[in-house]
Amino acid sequence: MSKNAKFDRAEVVEKATNLYWEKGYHGTSMRDLQATVDLRPGSIYAAFGSKDNLFKEAINHYANSTGKLLQLCLDETSSPLAGLKLFIRKITIENRENAPSDMCMIVKSISELTDNDNKELLDEAKALLNGVESRFADIIEDAMQTGEISSNKNAMDLARYMQVQIIGLRTYSRVNDDQTIIEKFIDDIFVGAPFH
Amino acid sequence: MSKNAKFDRAEVVEKATNLYWEKGYHGTSMRDLQATVDLRPGSIYAAFGSKDNLFKEAINHYANSTGKLLQLCLDETSSPLAGLKLFIRKITIENRENAPSDMCMIVKSISELTDNDNKELLDEAKALLNGVESRFADIIEDAMQTGEISSNKNAMDLARYMQVQIIGLRTYSRVNDDQTIIEKFIDDIFVGAPFH
DNA sequence: ATGTATAATGAACGAGTGTTCCACTTGAAA
DNA sequence: TTTCAAGTGGAACACTCGTTCATTATACAT
Q1: What is the largest CA-CA distance in chain A?
Q2: Could you please report the per-residue DSSP string of A44-66?
Q3: Residues A75, A77, A78, A83: what is their CA dihedral angle, to the nearest 10 degrees?
Q4: Which among B68, B70, B91, B133 is least surrounded, fewest beta carbons within 10 Å?
Q5: In this structure, are residues B92 and B142 in contact, taking their beta carbons and an 8 Å threshold?
């Protein structure tokens, strides 16, 4: 063996994630990254291999953190739907000021990446968004089990509905960030047609 | 006087728009543009000034075309809401294969541009999206006049609701492009809570 | 036919891109 | 204390970026 006391990898990924999240894949240069994670190219490339690879690790870290936040919301509320609602409130309102961007990093990535130029990263982002959707479906099935939602509904349909509302709302909130309007919209999501 | 038989400016803007729409602002290089509009840098810079300026013209052209499409949909249907629904169907399903991207170019731009690095273009895009929203509000007010919608609803609220649904659905359709699901979703938009 | 103002061309500029390479440093094993 | 594989720093590479500008081509007025 030899030396192994390097930088804190988790911390580097966290910082890289925030930069990619803010500026997007194309808007972030390796020199931007080098500066914000305070590492020289040699170290970054030894640890992550390429800009693409670092991005992949970043977006996975993002999805992971978001998943943990969702679980936290479910744990501190009394029902699946209440947890879901708290989660939406957190990402659209409460965590807004500290977040690098108003929008979901996965959605931003899906929006800017193309099949022609960045197929691999795009597919990664799509897979992660699908992961979120099936997590939503699980939660909704829990809600059907407890009777919070009528059990003759289709969980996948509702999960999809949730997904569209959140994507739409977060993007919309970049143009109109009136907090009361956003809050009202969140309330309306849960009395929307698919739930009846 | 002297020479004035130049290239067709409208045609150049159209081609530039499609490229920006597909690849985004950062993903499109001036050399990409030079190739697709078949002009040398000198001509482009004489006519448009800069990459930013050309983008501004492109996104305005896009908003204009979309506005015309919406009007067309209203003209060939029997009610404001039917027109709106046809419009949504067109942009999400019918025009899909010919379009450079599944998503709305304005939304893509709002998603990728930042206040720090591209404030001017971002503000332009936001203004255009707000323009769409007030157009929606006008249409909804028409629908209230004809009794298609209860007139104790708030037109701005409904316009905002439409906006969020369209943004969410178009983005979502990039991950799941099952046509029957998209169609079902469009139907559901118009029986959604805000309409009752 | 000639002169002239304007448009189009494309080489070139400096700065920035992702990435590589190698000399240097480090710290655990011997 | 010596050894040496692994980690780090930073100059440099080949290329691309947005943009400029001197040159050449063009078409109208005379």
Answers
A1: 64
A2: HHHHH-SHHHHHHHHHHHHHHHH
A3: -90
A4: B68
A5: no
Residue of B nearest to A28 (CA): B26
Domains and CATH numbers, chain B: 52-195 (1.10.357.10)
Question: Phi then psi for A26, rounded to 5 degrees?
Answer: -70, -30
**Which of B52, B59, B158, B152 minimizes the C-alpha distance to B104?**
B59
Residue A139 buriedness (CB in 10 A; 0-12 / 13-18 / 19+): buried
Per-residue pLDDT of chain B (196 residues; tens, 9 = 90+): 556 658 899 999 999 999 999 999 999 999 999 999 999 999 999 999 999 999 999 999 999 999 999 999 999 999 999 999 999 999 999 999 999 999 999 999 999 999 999 999 999 999 999 999 999 999 999 999 999 999 899 999 999 999 999 999 999 999 998 999 999 999 999 986 566 6
Record: contact B171-A23, CB cut-off 8 A:
no
CB atoms within 10 A of CB A64: 12
- CA distances to B18, B25, B32, B71 from B12, in Å: 10, 17, 13, 24
> How many CA atoms, within 13 angstroms, populate the side-chain half-sphere of residue B112?
24
Cβ–Cβ of A167/B167 closer than 8 Å?
yes
Residue A1 CB lies within 7 Å of the nucleic strand C: yes
* CB B128, CB B106: distance < 8 Å: yes
Query: Residue holding tokens 């001036």?
Result: B30
CA pseudo-torsion sign B91, B93, B99, B101: positive
Distance of alpha carbon B98 from alpha carbon B191, whole angstroms: 29
Q: Which residues contact B161 (CB under 8 A, 6 or more apart)?
A: A185, A188, B192, B194
Which residues of chain A have a CB within 8 Å of the CB of B167? 167-168, 171-172
What is the total residue count of chain B? 196
For residue A69, which amino acid is it? L
- Tell me how far apart the alpha carbons of residues A140 and A136 are, in angstroms, rounded to a whole number: 6
Q: Buried b / exposed e across B140-155, counting CB within 10 Å, b at 16+?
A: bbbbbeeeebeeebeb
Quote the CA–CA distance of A170 and B59 in Å, as a whole number: 22
B39 touches strand C (CB under 7 A): yes
